[in-house]
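Contributing: when you submit paired examples, paste them exactly as shown. First protein:
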Amino acid sequence: MSTTDPTPHRRAARVSRATKETSIEVSVDLDGTGATDVSTGLPFFDHMLSQLGRHGGIDLTVAATGDLDVDAHHTVEDVGIALGGVFAEALGDKAGVRRFASISLPLDEALVDVAVDLSGRPFLAYGIEFAPDTPGLGTPPFDPQLAEEFWRAFVTAAAITLHVRLVTGRNTHHIVEASFKAAARTLRDAVRVEGGGIPSTKGTL
């Protein structure tokens, strides 16, 4: 069950989502200051979600519990689903938003390109690959390949187009963090209100 924030013109929403594998509560305020409160049981994933809020200028709270004793996949994917859905709800009809944004973001030796379109059409092009035996990050470990699963779930639920491409990089932490920071910055630019109409010749997104 989700509810839109009743404050006029405030693009905020929250959601509670429960399955046999996970229980998740998420809230976002797209017009916030980047304040975050995140707890998923995966410290590295918490760090990445906090980067998403901080660099996206989004007030973000995430409280998730899941079957981490089985695998982290369920928790990561379900957080992506919940966060994407609440993002779309908060965004509303997208009147006046910039819609398109892109960035090339460095983090030490890592460089990641990200582009976004608030298109209403879910699509993920993810050009970052890790070897299957790449060590996880944090304790319990976050498999870096799960970053792609998070973004796929997010863009599907949010109905946006997202392109993520690694230009160069060696350090796993740097690569994943650069991708989250880059996505945050592009989303921040794309949701910015700079006009009064729907930015599409179709009249809807």
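Second protein:
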Amino acid sequence: MAERFRVLVIDDDPGVRDYMEALVSRQGYNVFAVADGEEALRTLDRTKPDLVTLDVVLPGMDGLETLHQLKQKLPEVPVVMLSGHGQARNIVEAMRRGASDFLRKPFEVEELELAFGKALEKRALKQEVERLRGRTRSEAEFMMLAGDSQKMREIRDIVEQVADTDITVLVRGDSGTGKEVVARQLYQLSGRRDKPFVKVNCAALPSELLESELFGFEKGAFTGAQKRKLGKFEYANHGTIFLDEISEMHPSLQAKLLQVLQDGEFSRLGSESDVHVDTRIIAATNRNLEEAVADGSFREDLYYRLNVVTVHLPPLRERKDSIPLLIDQFLQKNNEQYNKSLTHLNPETMEALQRYDWPGNIRELENMIRRMVVLGNEQAVIDEIEQLSQRSGASEEVKDSLDLDALGADFSSEQGIDLKRISRRAAQLAEKRVIERVLEQTRWNRKEAAERLQISYKALLYKMKENGLSDRR
């Protein structure tokens, strides 16, 4: 069972302390209550709070000075200020000193719940950003430096030129080529690197849930909306938002995103007022957006707004000089993670890895190296690569494996040959074999197979059912 959050209540009024202890406990938190700032500071090692509520008016050291010292000792712990007066100067000063919110007594229970939720969400987001920051810089720099092809040099130049601007960047490339790495590199080299980096996968949620995830909602906006929820754009204010798989966003949401790009404004679900944000947008896709514009599934005006600067990542098969460097990085990373000591690969293994065309790109290579490290068996992976290569070569000749004479006989009659039906059936057979091959390569991992085939997860499930592949595994 997860450990409950710990709340430290600082208030000199015994009645308020008792009320807060009862209220906060009912919300599922562990509560510690003290009467003044000095006692609060003395008990920090024992209470180890995740969140603090602090009265502005205290005997001895006042609330603002207590806030100052709390933030010096526990800079990452959010502090919600409480006051019976609410003078503007106190509010401004409290926020300047690092308070996460300011409530005026008497407050509603829902107000306190909302303040706690916002404070803890922001803290969690900040911790995740800090956790990733140390790891991301070295990984992103390495991945971007890997390879000395002309194409990779051009990509490095573009990233360095536009990173420290607010310009919108569209990162394109097949699944597994490192699009998120480029986005994080743009963020790390920008002036916004001390602000949040927020990632949203636009294909992971239905459009109605994605809208509330991106833009938030007001209390009562729909059934179950019991309190206001901030959206990812608000969390990314003054920072960077990375919209992965942007091509999967529903057209109705595309219009709202266009408004953010044009005006920096949007409205939460259920709200009549606009929210203004200053957020740098980086988007990524593995689909052909020009075709999506042509077939009407992607707005042309949004396409031009996103496509200001494009970084097009080549597949790994077109930058095989990167493979030895990537292998060294993945060996080091997985040795540390799994406490192993596979420091180098045999020449035969390296040769096999260099020959393979890597349809799953860098992600597939990393998974292969991880298995070698964990299992301590290079030969099993070499055998797998050889099998995959043979299947890949066979798929290139899939049309030759179709019995075209039989197809012609099936769709022939005294009136002649039904060429359209033959073409449709041949295409269906070819599609079935390609889907089956990719599913085998991914060990029937449908999500990964959909990414490799560059179709949505729902589309893959439909095609599997249509081709009689749903019950294979």
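If you have annotations for the second protein, write them as plain sentences, like these:
The chain is about 55% helix and 10% strand.
Residues 109-145 form the longest helix (37 residues).
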